[in-house]
Amino acid sequence: MRIAFYAPMKSPASPRPSGDRKIARLFMSALSAGSFVPFLASEFRSWEGSGDIVAQKMIKNQGLAIAKKMIEQYKQMDTDQKPIAWFTYHLYHKSPDWIGPVVSEALGIPYFVAEASVSPKQRDGNWSEGYSESLKAIHQAARIFCINPKDISALQDTLGSDDNLVSIAPFLDQNPNLDSATKQLKNTLSRQYKLNPDQYWLLTVAMMREDSKLSSYQVLAKAVDKIQRKDWQLIIVGDGVAETLVKELFRNDFKRQVHFVGRKDAERIDQLMQAADLFVWPAVNEALGMVALEALSNGLPNLLGNAGGIQQIIEHEETGLLLENPESANAPDRFATAIDQLLSDPIRLAKMRTASLTKFANHHHLQIAADQIASHIKAVIKS
To answer: Residue 323 in 3-state DSSP?
Structure first.
């Protein structure tokens, strides 16, 4: 059963690192694990971020032209090659779906959406047409799969009920290379990156951009400067346009406890997470916190700011600690204190490591989401 998949904001086929692209690929994997055959219907990007109404009109016309051509192509296909459903990931006023609803209606197939969001204040703003189109798509959707609980209230208000809303816990596939020989792995990585294997390893994995990511780095830099213990190192994985600014934030690291290792692939990040002792990230204005889920899947305790959907991933005091108001003036002091407390209690960290692996296996494994999504899609198709 073939399902047309589309991500209007960012194509999952792009190699550029992005949390949105990663989640899109995970939804495709979940559809595959649910016995469907997802295929990328289009890489057309409908996102317009500056509020340029003329540009939005051009994007709309391009999208509708693609939809028209796509309908003609699908109608000429054999039945077993046609999509039985359409699945769109992440639509909102800045990246409405100009293709999926039109194609679905023309072919008479159900339309599904994951991670739709509504911002009522945009109704009369510079993205008003994108807002209206997103609302139409949301109303057309047979099911809306929500991985961020903060989207649900506005969706309920928009739809007038929650009958077609399906809450799904953020998910990842099981890491097949989970290494139980942590000490050996830590020794290997310490030689590669010139780290001290006898000290605690704090780990941060984040892109370096001039937005909320930079704000989080600012909090983190102030926090590590206030840590009382001396037996730690901070490993920072990531790069980006703000790399110079981020490194400047840690200019007072005279004891060279902060180590920038650049961008790494998923396998190496998993290894660093398995070898590290604590994942630290202020998460200022974080939307979902997929990196926290990656840490959870590797059994790495988290110290995070409580933002976005992170609280559905990290269970406070069980799999890590969540600190409120990470953007506040005293956040660096609170982060430093929490780091000192956790590093002073290795038994507590060990319990958090075990609890992290258990929570991931019981709530966040890809197959759990795949079964949930598949049951809803099959029910809609059957009806």
So the answer is: strand
CA pair distance 196, 190, nearest whole angstrom: 6
pLDDT digits (tens, 9 = 90+) for 170-196: 999 876 666 666 778 999 999 999 999
CA torsion sign for 23, 29, 33, 37 is: positive
For strand 278-281 and strand 302-305, is the pairing parallel, antiparallel, or unpaired?
parallel
Domains 2-172+365-382 and 182-364 are alike in CATH topology: yes
Q: How confident is the model at residue 315 (pLDDT cuts 50, 70, 90)?
A: very high
Beta carbons of 296 and 328 less than 8 angstroms apart: no
Contacts of 110 (CB under 8 A, 6+ apart): 85, 86, 104, 142, 377, 380, 381
Q: Among 254, 293, 259, which Cα is nearest to 273's?
A: 293
In this predicted structure, what is the pLDDT of residue 48? 96
**Topology of 2-172+365-382 in CATH?**
Rossmann fold (3.40.50)
Instruction: Give the integer Cα–Cα distance in Å for 9 and 330.
Output: 35
pLDDT at 175: 67
How high is the pLDDT of residue 325? Answer: 95
Token pair for residue 297?
């899947």
Q: Residue 171, SS3?
A: coil
Q: What distance in Å separates the CA atoms of residue 39 and residue 5, rounded to the nearest whole number?
A: 6
Cα separation, 198 vs 203, in Å, equals 15
The whole-model pTM stands at: 0.89
Nearest to 122 by CA among 114, 113, 130: 130
> Averaged over 110-134, what is the pLDDT?
93
Q: Give the count of alpha carbons within 13 A of 101, CB side only.
A: 18
Q: Which helix (H) or strand (E) holds 278?
A: strand 278-281
- Position 2 scores a pLDDT of 96
The chain-wide mean pLDDT, for the chain, equals 94
182-364 folds as: Rossmann fold (3.40.50)
